[in-house]
Amino acid sequence: MSTSGDFDCIVIGAGVQGSFTAYQLAKKNKKTLLLEQFVLPHSRGSSHGQTRIIRKAYEQNFYTHMMEECYELWAQLEREAGVKLYRQTGLLVMGPEKSANYQNIKDTLQRNKVPMVVLTHDIFSQHIPNVNLAKGDEALVDTTAGVLFADRALKTVQEQFLKLGGVIRDNEKVTDIKPGPVVRVSTSVGVYHAKSLVITTGAWANKLLANTGLQLPLEVVKINVCYWKEKVPGSYGMKQRFPCFVQTECLESKVHIYGLPSNEYPGLMKVCYHMGSKTDPDQRDLQKDKSDIEILQHYIARCFPGLIPEPAIVESCLYTLTPDHHFVLDYHPAYSNIVIGAGFSGHGFKFGPIIGKLLCELSLGEVPSYDLSPFHIRRFQSKTRSAL
Ligand SMILES: Cc1cc2nc3c(=O)[nH]c(=O)nc-3n(C[C@H](O)[C@H](O)[C@H](O)COP(=O)(O)OP(=O)(O)OC[C@H]3O[C@@H](n4cnc5c(N)ncnc54)[C@H](O)[C@@H]3O)c2cc1C
Ligand SMILES: O=C(O)[C@@H]1CCCC=N1
Asked: Which positions ≥6 away from 243 have C-beta within 8 Å?
């Protein structure tokens, strides 16, 4: 196998965002190379695991708008590959009736005419058994929401990319980038050239961007991915049509708590805290903070009486947070043929197909299909360090 070559585009990082970007480029007949530092599939980044929530329930219109098309793109991939990637379960959103977070989500859903059901206290338990809605809380169900089969989706998009003639080189870490009209990319194995470059390296974004003189205000945190045992197996099961859920704030915390129905490990429901402790992606396992698990235990004991409030399995995953928790989808400030997709802030998986389309449009110099101003690098102003 040759360890050098010329491409129309090189994409660095084969997580969900890089894989969908490479796939979109190959669909446009661009000769595309997708580089990945680890042997695929791997569980060291942010896109591993069997499930993710997909939803239109957001506080901001722009995410809900992007999700309208994104559901279509997920369905297209399902048809193209003949694989099931999504199961509709609905998403239960619970929060203090008068809180800004909860109200903003409700308003966005109503404004955009997303199918939903409001569950007030008096009717809640008829619809959602085995959950205690806190006093003062209201609930709604975004009925379009559900579960994405994440690892299957990643495998599928990478397979479709290969079928379109794309090249994946895994176990090949990018060690240097030389910007220019033709970008030179050095790896642990060889050297490649391309007219354009897309950087989608997740938690490693700043490590790689250092080669281009740019540092973004990103914080990498380790998430404890907790699974909790059902007292009666299946009582929160996907097959029993139990929904995903988000608790916007509660007695125990102002940070979201979220969960998915039991599926991947029979009898275990995934419930996580939407924040973690700072870490270096290469030293993730040294970060041992478990204060989030204590918060989850109290919440589960109070609101999910059908779960044993002691985690049965704890896995790890990384969030790469921006200060406002919105993504970075932009050109490199100094090089118009380098595109950056970063800072997916723990909620980017569901957007994979639309992010792929947008990063592909940027790298081809096309007008992006959406207003990308919420995702521009210049919003950080003084927080962006550039040695250029
Ligand atoms: C616990 C958890 C729960 C989540 N739940 C949801 C959810 O329910 N719904 C949702 O929409 N989103 C969710 N997310 C967020 C979502 O999973 C992420 O936003 C998304 O996976 C980020 O993808 P990525 O491609 O940016 O990063 P990654 O998947 O980490 O991909 C980056 C890749 O770049 C590679 N790389 C880095 N440096 C180099 C280099 N120098 N050379 C070559 N390769 C390199 C890495 O090895 C990695 O494979 C969750 C995330 C976590 C951690
Ligand atoms: O992105 C999602 O839907 C999940 C649930 C809410 C918090 C983060 N990830």
From this structure: 89, 90, 91, 92, 128, 141, 145, 261
